[in-house]
Design a protein that fits this description.
heterotrimer; A alpha/beta; B alpha/beta; C alpha/beta; A: alpha/beta; FAD/NAD(P)-binding domain; 9 helices; about 25% helix; C: alpha/beta; four-stranded parallel beta sheet; 4 helices; about 20% strand; globular
Chain lengths: ~425, ~550, ~130
């Protein structure tokens, strides 16, 4: 597999899994990522262990990111997107635009001197989140005085490795690759679209992703309004899934809600947790062993609420139809967590057009047919991860590995075709 | 022997500002065996690395200590620097004076930094070189099973040039594919034909595994086929042995004529000459087993098929539909649109026989009322259970199962299809559940993993990183029993002594064996007792 | 260069506690300076002799930190470590040296707060044992 090049678009867990497999097989991998840091959404998920590991796989993501970032066969290009694709399988030409980072990640040693001297508030140059890879500082054009026309070069002067450069423009690169794996991930459903649930209006209404980040940053749950410990928490399932606009189950929400609930109960056994659901997805490897425990400690209510109102005292009143009582009920909670689903990326259209691949009805990238798991309508372009449809972390890793497998199989087939053509002549 | 140690400190461009580097350098230079001490502003960058290489060569340094950031991301970079300077990469130790010292404490941390460096020096003094070598591996793959997963894995392995043996205990391939075929419309016989003409695939039917020895790259299998013993060697083993189902019914009802399994219903639907088409069909699922996806998949597909083919009235009793697989929500909506009636129940319905028909009594959750349905045919709830061979194979291979008895420990780090032993994999239904999307992914991902291991016919490994000293080993078998990865077996030395032999291919270098050995015979380079104790003594 | 107040030795597994300690540093979470971390490939590599030698050498407490229960990369490493720590506690009690705490903690690589909490817990125990 030497001298083969593959482009992996997106450095979330699935793209990383694909890149690692191909790299270990001797292929040269270009891993491009539109953000300044790699890892996608799952890099900022929290550990949900109680007294035992709850198999949420958040730690597996960090392991894999580390492996990918130090792998000699993987060339990482952050701040990069595809502008154009031409050619055919075995011979694609990809034009990549790399936005200037202003802080050279190869030179930045994360010393922090630039942040110390930066005069703006909030700081225009700052470290990425702690688990971020590469752990090089980020310069925000929007905040930086220099880009507003002022003369400031304090960070540049303070940098010991001369990693900061303001005169950078976006760079164009052209890559020649044998195949492309699309692993661009998903958008989190914007809970503000369900206005009646109060996200964005009531500070104590959070999404599942917000909760993950609270636990990663602070490791304890406190109410955003007053910093107290919440005593009564509600999770609302299927926010942005299984509705007219999303005719699919996001696959991850029931499990992450239960595991987060389990973590909350472990930290504070007196906290009441209620989960409002339609159909409880209690499947998957390693889930059965937890389910019995959850059944005992969590209150499950069948029926998803459609309205949340904040009371005068700041509590959240959830209105739902209690089927067993046959009427509309109101329960009050300190904190409500909306289990938001996995949505296709808004910019999938652009990428689909550039690559010539199809989008399915639900907005995710389409597979070639029902018996393929990674192939698209274009030979040589494969899908990995949630950009093809909702998946949890283990499934995303598996899907990424499967995409790499399809690439290797396609390369092997074309190699044997070339050989048999040669033999014929 | 006096080893020459070079110590390289990095101050991250002057940003590590709570360590008095001048004082530290002075103290370190006084330590025994320290030939040179250097301070650099950016050791991990090109300039810094080049200076390191020159220093090592010029001063004939034999061991290197770097005091800088965390080894987690930089260790491999510095090991490369050593190789470039002509030293074995293992003669290296790192002191984490940034993340675990400078950044973790307020105030002056010079004393701690100095101690961390001293710990690393003490350790590095004792380190031994470890060489790398390519070891040959057998490129043949054994796939145990003969269903959809096994067949397609063999075909994909063939595509990447790997030869496979399909080991099937039944007399033919494709048994057990009935349901998947009905639901997804693929043709098992054409897949089997493809296998039969594929020169890379050997099919052994009516054959069972009787014994397996060895490890990755070198498994020896004793197979019994129709009374004959066959011996084969393989580089990797893939288990695709599926699962079995059992009707979750009271025993007196199980023998009822009009109570069938999903598989039986599939057959009835395919059978064009059915005597009487059932007018009313009842389905039940998700009461006794709330952790499987397949019952939902089967019910939705069969319910729709029965509606389309026979125009029957279809009622589904369930607790929660498991729609967390691709296409399931759409299928569920389609079933509802086509008039399949779904009755959500909290408690398991009561089943009784009723004059040749089946009576289902359940409390409908939404109506809050008891519902009684008399149907012509009941498709009973099925439990997914490990297949018959699972227990046998797992003890033959000595591999762990999960809490439900299916393959693959639930240890999250073993995902997606690996076992705790290198070279042994599980795919498809034998992992405990089934849906097409995940099965297809399992198949392709195991092909990738096996290709990565075996395709070049050799694997690069560290030689004797962990080794049992034949002089001290008394063959007590403790390490063999304890190794979580099955990497140790009894071997004969040149003097015919039986000792523990640790396979360089299968070893994960965890050190559990080194800790447990009662004779302290196991040497784990880099983490030998003396190397750990030397660090403690430096404090 | 011996530190003035007794030191704490922590054996940190490279899959869990060691990266968690790194992360604590990146987040500038502070913990006692008297901590000395020894990196091991698995908590299961830590042997009783290592723990006892640490005390012999003047440690006021010893920690063994490994992966969460059920998440050990090597399946049984963290369980074995826990048993050894228990055994050490028993031994120390027998020789009436049980004023020296030795404890096992389980965490994931993305739990820097748990790392710091473990240290705070052991520091509390040291104070309570009056050393």
């Amino acid at each position: 597999m030497e001298s083969k090049n593959v482009l992996v678009v997106g450095s979330g867990i699935s793209g990383i899994a694909s890149a690692l497999e191909l790299a270990n097989a001797g292929v040269s991998v270009y891993l491009i990522e539109k953000e300044a840091v790699v890892g996608g959404h799952s890099a900022s998920f929290c550990c949900k262990a109680t007294d035992i590991c709850s198999k949420c796989s958040a730690c597996v993501v960090l392991d894999k990111i580390k492996e990918a970032v130090i792998h000699p066969q993987i060339r990482l290009l952050t701040n990069s997107t595809i502008r154009q694709l031409s050619g055919e399988p075995g011979n694609f030409r990809v034009e990549i635009t790399q936005q200037p980072r202003y802080v050279d990640e190869e030179k930045c040693i994360a010393c922090g001197l630039c942040t110390e001297v930066c005069p703006t508030d909030p700081k225009a140059v700052y470290p990425p989140f702690a688990e971020a890879t590469p752990f090089s500082y980020i310069l925000d054009e929007g905040l930086c005085l220099r880009f507003k026309g002022e003369k400031c070069g304090l960070c540049l002067e303070s940098c010991p490795t001369k990693a900061i450069e303001f005169e950078l423009k976006s760079k164009e690169r052209e890559l020649s690759v044998d195949a492309v794996i699309v692993a661009t991930g998903f958008d989190v459903f914007d809970a503000r679209k369900k206005g009646s649930l109060g996200y964005g209006r009531y500070p104590n209404v959070l999404t599942g992703l917000d909760l993950e980040q609270v636990f990663t940053r602070e490791s304890y749950l406190r109410l955003p309004t007053n910093g107290n410990e919440p005593k009564n928490i509600a999770f609302i399932q299927c926010v942005g899934s299984r509705d007219e606009d999303h005719e699919y189950c996001s696959q991850v929400c029931c499990k992450y809600a239960m595991k987060l609930a389990g973590l909350i109960k472990y930290q504070n056994p007196d906290t009441q947790v209620t989960i409002f659901y339609i159909d409880l997805q209690t499947t998957g490897k390693g889930f059965a062993q937890f389910y019995e425990k959850y059944k005992e400690s969590i209150r499950f209510v069948r029926g998803v609420p459609v309205e949340i109102l904040q009371t005068v005292s700041g509590e959240l009143e959830v209105r739902f139809e209690d089927i067993s009582q046959g009427k509309v009920c109101r329960d009050t909670f300190d904190l409500v967590v909306l289990s938001v689903g996995i949505s296709p990326r808004k910019n999938s259209w652009d990428l689909a057009r550039i690559l010539g691949i199809n989008l399915a009805d639900d907005g995710f990238f389409d597979k070639k047919d029902s018996l393929s798991c990674n192939e698209t309508n274009v030979d040589g372009i494969f899908l990995a991860g949630t950009c093809q449809g909702p998946k949890d972390i283990p499934d995303s890793i598996a899907h990424g590995i499967a995409a790499a497998s399809k690439v290797i199989q396609a390369l092997a087939e074309s190699a044997s075709q070339v050989r048999s053509n040669q033999e014929r002549h | 022997m006096e080893t020459k140690i070079g110590v390289f400190l990095c101050n991250c461009g002057g940003a590590i500002n709570n360590i008095d580097f001048d004082a530290a350098v002075k103290e370190i230079a006084k330590l025994p065996n320290v030939t040179c001490v250097n301070l650099s502003p950016n050791l991990c960058l090109e300039e810094g690395k080049e200076k390191m290489v020159s220093c090592i060569k010029d001063e004939n340094i034999e061991r290197v200590v770097v005091a800088a950031c965390s080894p987690e991301f930089q260790e491999h970079i510095f090991r490369e620097v050593l190789e470039k300077a002509g030293l074995n990469g293992h003669l290296f130790s790192m002191a984490n004076i940034r993340e675990q010292c400078s950044w973790a404490h307020d105030g002056d941390v010079t004393v701690k930094a100095g101690e961390l460096v001293k710990m690393a020096i003490n350790r590095v003094r004792l380190l031994q070189p470890v060489e790398k070598k390519e070891l040959p591996v057998n490129r043949e793959v054994l796939v145990v099973g003969g269903g959809f997963s096994a067949i397609n894995t063999a075909l994909q392995l063939s595509r990447v040039g790997l030869r496979t043996t399909l080991l099937e205990k039944e007399a033919a391939l494709g048994i057990g594919n009935e349901e998947l075929e009905s639901f997804y419309g693929f043709d098992t016989s054409s897949m089997i034909s493809a296998v039969e003409v594929d020169k890379n695939i050997e099919v052994l039917t009516s054959a069972q595994m009787k014994e397996v020895k060895g490890k990755i790259g070198d498994f020896s299998a004793r197979i019994r086929k129709e009374g004959e013993e066959i011996f084969r060697k393989y580089g990797a083993i893939i288990l695709a042995t599926g699962y079995q189902t059992e009707l979750a019914l009271d025993s007196e009802l199980k023998s009822g004529l009009n109570i069938v399994s999903q598989e039986q219903l599939c057959r009835m639907l395919r059978n064009s000459g059915l005597e009487t088409e059932p007018k009313t069909i009842g389905f039940m699922f998700d009461f006794s087993d709330e952790n499987s996806r397949f019952p939902t998949l089967a019910t939705l597909n069969n319910a729709l098929a029965a509606k389309k083919k026979w125009g029957s009235e279809v009622y589904v009793f369930y607790k929660s539909v498991k729609v967390d697989s691709e296409g399931m929500e759409k299928l569920y909506q389609e079933a509802r649109d086509r008039g399949v009636v779904f009755l959500k129940c909290e408690a398991r319905p009561r089943i009784t026989a009723d004059n040749g028909r089946v009576k289902i009594e359940a409390k409908d959750f939404f109506l809050g009322e008891n519902t009684i349905l008399a149907c012509d045919l009941l498709v009973a709830e099925e439990l997914l259970l490990p297949s018959e061979g699972t227990e046998t194979l797992s003890s033959l291979l000595n591999i762990r199962k999960d809490s439900r008895g299916f393959y693959q420990d639930e240890n999250v780090h073993l995902y997606p299809i690996a076992s705790e032993k290198k070279g042994i994999f599980f795919i498809g239904g034998c992992r405990g559940d089934l849906d097409l999307g995940r099965v297809l992914t399992d198949i392709s991902s195991v092909v990738m993993n096996v290709h990565e291991l075996l395709s070049s016919g050799k694997i690069l490994v560290e030689i004797e990183r962990v080794k049992a000293d034949p002089q001290k080993c008394v063959a007590c078998l403790t390490c063999i029993r304890v190794c979580p990865h099955g990497a140790i077996q009894l071997v004969r030395t040149d003097n015919s002594k039986e000792v523990a032999g640790i396979s360089d291919l299968a070893c994960y270098a965890c050190g559990i064996c080194a800790a447990i050995c009662p004779a302290k015979a196991i040497k784990f380079q880099g983490y030998r007792d003396e190397e750990i104790l030397a660090q403690i003594e430096a404090i | 260069m011996r530190s003035m107040n007794g030191h704490i030795v922590a054996f940190c597994c490279e899959h869990s506690a060691y990266p968690a300690a790194d992360l604590a540093g990146k987040l500038r979470l502070h913990y006692p300076e008297s901590l000395r971390i020894i990196r091991v490939p698995c908590a299961g590599r830590v042997d009783v002799i290592h723990i006892l030698k640490a005390f012999e050498n003047g440690a006021v407490a010893v920690l063994v930190l490994g992966c969460e229960d059920g998440a050990c990369h090597h399946i049984t490493g963290n369980t074995r470590a826990k048993e050894r720590v228990k055994y050490c506690n028993m031994l120390l009690k027998e020789i009436e040296a049980d004023g020296r705490p030795v404890a096992m903690f389980n965490l994931s690589p993305n739990e820097p707060h748990k790392f710091v909490r473990a240290l705070n817990e052991i520091t509390k125990r040291i104070k309570e044992s009056g050393r």
